[in-house]
Inverse folding.
């Protein structure tokens, strides 16, 4: 399995919530080689500001976001969002000092240019054997997927 940061981008929040639910179910599946480490959801408003989404019923994942997911959100938000992204990562209870070991700025830069105002993104850190289960969950909900090289 390969540890990756996976960003799934959707045209609206409802699609993102549906896909997040499907991804969450993958972690409990005995048929899929998938281990979810952390996750968070955010929306880019019409002005390009990053807004962390509140979970409807319960947190999307036990850990809201790890250091890498928090750093990625901060990077996408730009300089003003860096502190917010770090705070999101810190709420997950993970040490942000580890970011330097696994944070890929080229990947973050690519994703930052592709998340458009009005879109909602699900960011997860996961070990995945095959990319197909996540790709299918995202595609059926009208999204697109970006992955770090792990």
């Amino acid at each position: 399995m390969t540890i990756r940061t996976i960003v799934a981008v959707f045209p609206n929040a409802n699609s993102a919530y549906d896909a997040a639910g499907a991804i969450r179910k993958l972690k409990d599946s005995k048929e899929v080689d998938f281990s979810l480490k952390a996750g968070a959801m955010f929306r880019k408003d019409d002005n390009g500001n990053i807004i962390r989404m509140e979970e409807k019923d319960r947190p999307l994942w036990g850990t809201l976001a790890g250091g890498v997911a928090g750093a990625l959100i901060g990077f996408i938000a730009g300089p003003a969002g860096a502190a917010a992204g770090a705070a999101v990562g810190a709420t997950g209870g993970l040490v942000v000092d580890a970011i330097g070991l696994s944070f890929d700025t080229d990947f973050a830069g690519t994703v930052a240019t592709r998340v458009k105002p009005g879109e909602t993104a699900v960011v997860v850190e996961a070990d995945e054997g095959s990319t197909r289960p996540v790709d299918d969950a995202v595609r059926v909900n009208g999204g697109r997927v970006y992955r770090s090289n792990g």
In short: The chain has one domain: 2-147. Residues 13-28 form the longest helix (16 residues). The chain is about 40% helix and 25% strand. The longest strand covers residues 34-44.
